[in-house]
Every structure is written in structure tokens, then in C-alpha cells.
Amino acid sequence: MDRLSQESFLRDLEPGPCDPMAIVAPTLYGSNPAAPSPQERLARIVRTIENDIIPRLIRAHRHVVEPLPAAVPSTPSYAEVQAFVQLLLAADDAGWHVMIEGITSRGVQIDDIYIGLLGPAAAELGRCWDDDLCSFTDVTVGMGRLQRIMRSLSPAFGRDVEYPADGRRVLLLPGPGEQHTFGLSIVAEFFRRSGWDVVGDTDSRAADPAALVRSEWFDVIGISVGLDTRLDWLKSGVAAVRNASRNRSIGILVGGPAFSAFPERAAEVGADGTAADGRQAPIVAEQLLGQRGKRL
Questions:
Q1: pLDDT tens sequence across 63-111
Q2: How far apart are the C-alpha atoms of 206 and 177, rounded to whole Å?
Q3: In whole angstroms, what is the distance from residue 109 CA to residue 74 CA?
Q4: What residues does 274 pair with on adjacent strands?
Q5: What is the CATH number of the domain that holds 104?
Q6: 126-135 burial string, b = 16+ CB within 10 Å, else e?
Q7: Cα–Cα distance measured from residue 9 to residue 54, given in angstroms and rounded to the nearest whole number
Q8: For a tag site, which of 77, 83, 223, 251 has the least CB within 10 Å?
Q9: pTM for this one?
Q10: Which domain holds residue 226?
């Protein structure tokens, strides 16, 4: 840099009346800023930046808030479901006890345990049975443990229930020949929490929907179907329920694996609606009651 360029550069660095550099000008130039040579002035600027300004910036940013640790997932993960299934099939109860306590202690809500852990675990046990990966005894033990867990969680799950004065009754049944009915038990728990009087029979061999709605009043009936091969029966079963019901405006819900990916099937079998999971079922049922009121 030649002399003219240096002088031009230094003139640009001279602090103006509103220039932040005016704050450090006395340090840079002393009491007589015109006295030092351009080279000495440049050296002073460099020393001041290195020894004063940069350390101040470091101290100012030293207390930056550290990023918060990643939030613990509220809903059990797929890996947790798989591990939980293995604990259900273990020789003793210690493992799943510890896992349930760990999940609840981190603040996971009971309904998320129902939907995100118990339901998927039951479905996984069902797949293991269907694929001959587990014996009948293994699956029976695992499902029995799931029932025990659900009963142990149920008091906490339903402690905020508010029962309506007019009463609401729902009949929950599996389709004929259904082997996996634990999901329907979870649906029943959500209805109870929402204040419904729940009637159900998980023994699909004894369940006759038309006979039950003929003998008792129900506001809604829910039928769970797991296999596509049951859809033909369901279509005729829905029609039979409507013809036999004491409640001529009974709402009919269908659910289960056969409808999970194809909710449009509900209309195809003549039902009034379907729900993605147990948490949604009482909401859909309430909507059906509202629609019935409009029809009446």
C-alpha cells in the first residue's frame, strides 16, 4: 500500500460524530490524534482491535445459552414396541414392569400408552401367531399380560370421567371368527373414559349383533373386523342390525385392520363411519348422535 492509499484508508477510519469508532478513538489516537504518523496510527488500530475490541466481543458472547437437549418422545417408538413384545413373551414379569414404569415416569399420557404401545404390541403378537413365529401358549401369555397392564392403568386412565345425565350406551363386538380382540378392549376403555355405558362381548362365537340390539337399547354399535374376508358378512350384518334394532336411528361404527388403510370401506358395508383408533371412536360416535338428533 503506497503512502496516498494509506492516508486514504486511515481517513476512512477516522470516527465521525455518529461513528461507533468514536467510542474507542481516544484509545486509538491519544489526546492528540494528528500527531502520530500514518504508519503508527495503523499499528495502534491493529493493536487496539487485537487487544481490546476482540476480547470485548468474546466476553460479550461467552454466556450464549446452550441448546436444549432433544425432547424425549412422548409416544412410544417402534423400537420400544418391539422390545416390549419381547418382554411380554419373557419367562417372568419383571421386564415389562420396569418398561411400563419407565415410560410413565417420563410423562407419557395413559392414552398414548394405550394407542402407542399396548395396541401395537397386541397387533404384533397377532402377526407372530399368524406367521407361526410364536406358539399358542406364548401368545396367550402375552395377551394375558396386556390385559393385566390395561386393567392396572385403567383407574388412572378414567379418573376424569364425566357421566352425562341422559346416558349413552354403546355395544362393541368383534366380527365372527375374529381371534384378535384386544384392540376392541382398548376402544372400550376410551368409550368408558368419555362417559359411555359400554356393553361388549369379545367372544365372537357367541356374539349376535342383531339379537343384542333387538333385546336392548343402544345408541351406537361398534363392530371390529380384522380380515377382508369378513367384509361380506359385515355388509349383511349391518343391514340386519338396522332392521332389528329397537333404536331405529342407531349409529353403526366399524373398525379394525380391515378399515385402517381403507376407511372408505365403511360406507361400502353400509356403516355410518369408522375411526382410526380407540381415541377417535368416541368422537365419531358423538358425531353420529348429533346427526341422529338432526334427523329426529
A1: 554 554 555 557 888 899 999 999 999 989 999 999 999 999 888 888 8
A2: 10
A3: 8
A4: 254
A5: 1.10.1240.10
A6: bebbeeeebe
A7: 21
A8: 77
A9: 0.67
A10: 169-295
